[in-house]
Amino acid sequence: MTAAATALHADAVRALDGWAVADPDQDRLRRDYLDHLADRPDGMWRACLPAHITASAVVVDPAGGRVLLTLHPKVGMWLQMGGHCEPGDATLAAAALREATEESGIPGLELLALDGAVRPVKLDRHRVHCTGKDQPANTHLDVQYVALAPAHAEEMISEESLDLRWFEYDHLPELTDVSVRDLVALARGLVD
Hints:
The chain has four helices and ten strands, in the order H-H-E-E-E-E-H-E-E-E-E-E-E-H. It has helices spanning 3-17, 24-39, 92-104, 178-191; strands at 51-61, 66-71, 78-79, 81-84, 110-111, 113-114, 117-118, 122-128, 138-148, 163-168. Helix 1 (3-17) packs antiparallel against helix 2 (24-39). The radius of gyration is 16 Å and the shape is globular. The protein is α+β, with helices and mostly antiparallel strands. Pfam families: NUDIX. This is NUDIX hydrolase. Belongs to the Nudix hydrolase family.
């Protein structure tokens, strides 16, 4: 394993280990993620099966009271921006910010800092077919952040989305699952 891969793995452990979460279900997930990383030096990478860490960020425009969601081509649902860690990612937070910037097309996004530090806000474990439709499902251990968009930011759709749209917090699209709705509500509470 390269020095950069080892550093990213260590950063993920630090980010999760240092995150104090009051919700017992979220804390159980946090401990599961840490166990995964303790067992798997390759646990940050897409090739790590049956599970691997991913990073995402819900993009919000606090001034406009809106959230940007992407219509994911493989899932057919409106989701936050996110995806797999890459070798150039220095930190887990940097991976989330890179994904949010790439998928939204918005320059100048910043991750929300809580108590002076960028921290995850939520975890979500879900089954996916990221290695191909004809391959067995695997599990994403998603670490979620909040990305703040500049006021009046304009999105630019990428090849990773079918559509990209701003929604008012209280008017999310029907094709949004409870996990995304919970993440948006949490983000709204943190930025309002």
